[in-house]
Amino acid sequence: MIQLIPSLTVMDGKNVRIVRGNYNDITVYNETPLEAAIRFEEHGLDWLHLVDLDGSRQRRVANYDTLELISNHTQLKIEFGGGIETDGDISKCFEYGAQFISTGSIAARNRDLFASWVMSYGRDRIVLSADWFEGNLKVRGEEQVSDIDLLELVEYHYDRSLLYLKCTDIDKSGTLQGVNTDLYRKLVQKFPDLRIMASGGVKSIDDIKALADVGVWGVVFGKAYYSGAIDLKSLEQYIVQQGTIV
Known about the structure:
Layout: E1 3-11, E2 14-19, E3 22-28, H1 33-42, E4 47-52, H2 53-58, H3 64-73, E5 77-81, H4 87-95, E6 100-103, H5 105-109, H6 111-121, E7 126-133, E8 136-139, E9 144-149, H7 150-158, E10 164-169, H8 181-190, E11 195-199, H9 205-214, E12 218-221, H10 223-226, H11 232-242
Parallel strand pairs: 1-4, 1-12, 4-5, 5-6, 6-7, 7-10, 10-11, 11-12
Antiparallel strand pairs: 1-2, 2-3, 7-8, 8-9
Helix pairs in contact: 1-3
């Protein structure tokens, strides 16, 4: 069974989508982040991937108010990322309602610090967010391609008790072009004990089923919902048919 995780990207308090990490290709939606979160919960979804786009670019968390608002008005399990750089940032995110925090740039450029977070806060609360682009890691708000090999980075933290990995195929992100099942199959085979969240390119429930067959723990989707390619009623029916992950 696969966990369905809707994604909300927030910029200036607004609900936005970004294509392939390109800040010149941003769509702003009329539905507020809170309205979207409430709709997700009403249709049986219990997780939320919340991205602070301002925080990612500024390297400091900027949208605490949105995190707090959604936390106060829903029971969603919020995985929050964007601009988290210090222990103080993590503590504040948890204080404002996040159940999980995710970061990629720190995990890449300060591996010891990220590994210490996994140990200090618990492997069930820290998510490695790895943005994949042609085999390497893309960092700092998806703007820079590094020379860091994705599999090598994941293996480093996997050997240090990492439990959660969210891996986004940036070339697919926001495009509705279908999912990169080969990438996630490789990750599942290499790291069988990781709870892997696949992200990027989801365009239909068939993509979700394909990822379930690959064996990923969860799937993150955003554009498919906002474009109408996937409707929440169909997802609700899918959840009933498949059962839910505890």
